[in-house]
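Submission checklist for the structure archive. All mandatory fields must be present; incomplete records are returned to the submitter.

[x] Identifier: Alpha,alpha-trehalose phosphorylase
[x] Organism: Mobilisporobacter senegalensis
[x] Residue count: 760
[x] Sequence attached
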Amino acid sequence: MSNRQSIYEIKDLSLNNEDLILNETVFHNANGYIGVRSNFEEGYPEGFDSIRGSYINGFYDIAQMKQAEKLYGFVEEKQTMLNVVDSQSIYLFLDDEPFNMFEGTVMESSRWLNMSEGYTARRVVWRSPKGKEVEIIIKRMTSFYQLSLFTIEYSVKALNFEGNITFKSNHIGEVMNYCNPEDPRVAGESFRHLFPHSAKIIEDASFIVTHTSKSGLAVCTGVKNCLSKTGVMDVCIEEHKAICTIESNIVCNETITLTKYTVFSDSIREQDCEQKAMEEMDCALSLSLEEHYKKQREYLTDYWNQTSLEIEGDDELSLAVRYNLYQLIQSVGKDEHSNIAAKGLSGEGYEGHFFWDTEMYIQPFFTLTNPKIAKNLIEYRYSILEEARENARIMGHKKGALYPWRTINGKECSGYFPAGTAQYHINGDIAYSIVQYYLATKDMDFIAGKAGEIIFETARLWIDVGNYVNDEFHINGVTGPDEYTCMVNNNYYTNSSAKNHLNWAAKFYHLLDEFNLLKPVADKIDLSQSEIEEFKMAAEKMFLPYDEKLKINPQDDSFLQKKMWDIKNTPKEKFPLLLNYHPLHLYRYQVCKQADTVLAHFIFEDDEKIETIRNSFLYYEKVTTHDSSLSTCIYSIVASKLGMEEKAYDYFGDSAKLDLFNTHHNTKDGIHTANMGGNYMAVVYGFAGLRLKESGLFLSPSLPKKWSGYQFKVTFEQSQIKIEVTEDMCIVTLVSGDEKVIHVYGREYHLKDTISIERI
């Protein structure tokens, strides 16, 4: 991996408030368990806006969700991800002068992310109001080796003076979440969710336990400060806040370093989170900081070797893609208690909730590069299967399971049901992700143990929610992926998803029977052959809307009856539409927030003729605003399939650069993790034409004109395969594992070592 692909740097830091809060997201540190926004250790001036947060994946409290109409089944409370501690605060004093980038003179400044070594850093050369000059370098890391650990290495070099130096390092357990009543994507009200329970000092390390207000959960954070030279240290507790003050002296050209260790532990995963935090602190201190850095490098070396997506000929785009893949490993939960929030662990947008984003946009990346993580994500869904069954009962279904639209602990958090709970396609999305995992791994034991139960229980919902009309199976009163068109009959995507789901439920039933693995799961959920026949019949007779005149698949029964929205003449300041128009107003128009039918044409491409897919793509392109970050990557993939190379490239660029270049102007609230997975798919499923099917692995590579080549690796049935695409050739190499049968441009090949195929 070249240096330009592994380091993102900003020089001459802007101190504009908008830039600062954006960079809190862009340079955040996370490892899938914890996430810490990149706030200045010394803070900002009074009146500056900031989202100062540290988060634990899957840790939450309960907040009220007030409903104007108290009707049966309406959600009246929700889970919300919590800011659990402020252990970032470090104040530096040179004699009596505090370091502050907003006072004195900033002579040089920069900030960077090293994606091969796994840390962020800030460098400042600063002159105090009284003329003292220092170089400050601050490195921050969330460890992939020890998931509980966050470190700050704060180095100060005296450039033109000698004197006293003082560090004041705070550990604050009483913190609040960010709120913005003007933006529905973040919390609208400020609540106090965490209450101090205990605070103690053990061998100069502080441990603070806080309890949530309603969810009955607890978190313990521990902090230890270590100085590189002898000094006077005082650690005290003041109202459940630990303050560590360290004084020493410094001479000209000397560097002094404060290392601050923070560990996290929570009661979801541990019976005694305080005791666990103490053990984690001992573990952290048992290695030097250099050893922690070494293990971080080793983890990421292995990660990049597995993922290995490189683009040649466009350094800026290549860097953006690399950044996105780095954020995916930072965001993804590494155990069954967590998943991937819409903003990862970078901010409080969407309150840390897990959506369908995981299954449809992010899990495909891990399915192809790290199946173990993909399996963990499915196991999280299994861990909340009982809550999905309960949700189905609330929605009036006597059998089966319906997964919530947005959740942390398994209970529905969607307060506006037309654009939330009504999106029944969530069941089909989870089923699709399981099918893809199976096609990539052939892990039949997992299907028998957990995944099959999810498939069968969620498939039952389609039989209950749908009904036969003129010998066709219809699904009414649901919402598809497009949230500008809600509560419709026969949404094409939903019906296609249900058809795929029901067919695979029948296939898995027979596969399990063939491997003598069926009985345990069938007995557990009382699944019979007659029910499977019912699944097959519904799939066979599934109604998929088609318009003979336009030769397209209408998004739903009523979509084509509506007026078209005039996107071209809508003022720019009116986008995104959801913030400027009443939902009912939007629902009466042909206008799409994101890919809907077009998404179905990507993942269920064999259901329709290529001509129908082309006509549909061109039709929906005219009425789609792409107000959702989930949209342009899908349009890129389908444009690639249709041979529309320029469109595919343009849509891909919009997708890839979204967060690193803040193209939607809302990255301050957190990264867009689903889009990041989507732009990986735009390369691998789009330009490379990769598909996982029952008959094997398929490729149909194309090359954007602005690139000289690209390459990536995938794991397929325990074998690692490298695909290189050049101007003339497609080169496929078996890196490790058993030989495989693959398909390139529709022809079958036996992959034993390396195959070179002329690019079509």
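[x] Structure attached
Curator remark: Residues 3-280 form a domain with the Beta-galactosidase; Chain A, domain 5 fold (CATH 2.70.98.40). The chain has a mean pLDDT of 96.
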